[in-house]
Design brief:
alpha+beta, Arc Repressor Mutant, subunit A, three-stranded antiparallel beta sheet, globular, 3 strands, 5 helices
């Protein structure tokens, strides 16, 4: 299989969880510490840290330490454009399902 597609699949796997998508959305505005992201997703600290590690390993986010806090930020904010595309697919499917019910 082509290495480009393998690499793309790895990035997509790193995004394939609702909590990670919530964190990405939150990081669109500013960098945030783990504790802030934990509050947003409502998961335990170890769970949030695992999600962040997966996205960091995929090259989507990066971190910096400031004292005892670790702050995360988007490395490639253009990744957020995918939300609009996904929403368009969901809306199209919703409309198609409505047409099936009406038929």
């Amino acid at each position: 299989m082509d290495q480009v597609y393998e690499a793309r699949a790895e990035v997509m796997k790193a995004l394939a969880h609702p909590s990670r998508l919530m964190m990405l959305d939150a990081l669109a505005d500013r960098e945030m510490c783990v504790c802030e992201l934990q509050e947003i997703v409502g998961s335990s600290m170890p769970t949030v840290s695992r999600h962040l590690a997966q996205m960091k390993n995929a090259g989507i986010i990066d971190s910096r330490r400031d004292g005892n806090q670790i702050y995360y930020r988007l490395v490639v904010p253009c990744i957020l454009h995918m939300f609009g595309c996904i929403d368009a697919v969901l809306q199209r499917e919703h409309l198609r399902a409505a047409e099936v019910v009406e038929a």
